[in-house]
């Protein structure tokens, strides 16, 4: 199997502000005009975007949210846990991976405006996944969580929030 370093080098992946490494692989040429989007979008958006994303053991994606749905796809490596805080306070843990008998899935969607974070499962060496966003990803739609504010809003999940927030 390929190593994390080989994948990072082969795809010329860059450090992502939320943690881990990424490489944009697709940005639709079709554009949605701002007036056709919800009011919280600040401009036109590409119809869709896609990236490769990689987290190594000990790395995590900090809690953040975006204004679009994000579909995650498992490609290679080991299980990735995605922690989704829904508006109603429910914490959903998605196990992205190839062990279907262990409740893992190859693909999952994080709904728009949900706070979410991810990290490789305990025994995982690395997780190589993809993320497809529609309307397309734009850093203007990206917000990293403030730990104290997220803990105040979701006090029952403070332990995982403190683990997966950038401090």
If you had to describe this structure to a student in words, what would you say it looks like?
The protein has 167 residues and is mainly beta. The chain has one domain (4-163): Jelly Rolls, CATH 2.60.120. It is 12% helix and 41% strand. The chain has three helices and 13 strands. The strands form three sheets. Strands 1-2-5-12-7-10 form a six-stranded antiparallel sheet, covered by helices on one side. The termini are far apart.
Question: What's the level 1 CATH class?
Answer: Mainly Beta
Name the poorly predicted regions: none
Total domain count:
1
Look at the helices and sheets and give the structural class: mainly beta
- Rg, nearest Å: 16 Å
Brief summary of the model shown:
With 167 residues, the protein is mainly beta. 12% of the residues lie in helices and 41% in strands.
Chart the SSEs and their pairings:
Elements: H1 4-10, E1 14-15, E2 21-27, E3 31-32, E4 45-46, E5 49-56, E6 61-65, E7 69-77, E8 80-85, E9 91-96, E10 107-110, E11 115-120, E12 126-134, E13 143-144, H2 147-153, H3 158-163
Antiparallel strand pairs: 1-2, 2-5, 3-4, 5-12, 6-11, 6-13, 7-10, 7-12, 8-9, 8-11
């Amino acid at each position: 199997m390929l190593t994390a370093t080989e994948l990072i080098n082969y795809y010329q992946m860059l450090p992502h502000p939320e943690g881990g490494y990424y490489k944009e692989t697709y940005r639709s040429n079709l554009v949605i005009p701002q007036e056709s989007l919800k009011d919280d979008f600040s401009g036109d958006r590409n119809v869709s975007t896609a990236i490769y994303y990689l987290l190594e053991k000990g790395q995590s994606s900090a809690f953040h949210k975006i204004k679009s749905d994000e579909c995650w796809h498992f490609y290679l490596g080991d299980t990735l846990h995605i922690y989704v805080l829904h508006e109603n306070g429910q914490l959903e843990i998605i196990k992205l991976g190839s062990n279907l008998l262990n409740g893992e899935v190859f693909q999952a969607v994080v709904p728009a405006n949900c706070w979410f974070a991810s990290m490789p499962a305990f025994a995982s060496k690395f997780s190589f996944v993809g993320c497809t966003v529609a309307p397309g990803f734009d850093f203007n739609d990206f917000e990293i969580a403030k730990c104290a504010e997220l803990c105040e809003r979701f006090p029952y999940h403070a332990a995982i929030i403190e683990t997966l927030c950038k401090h």
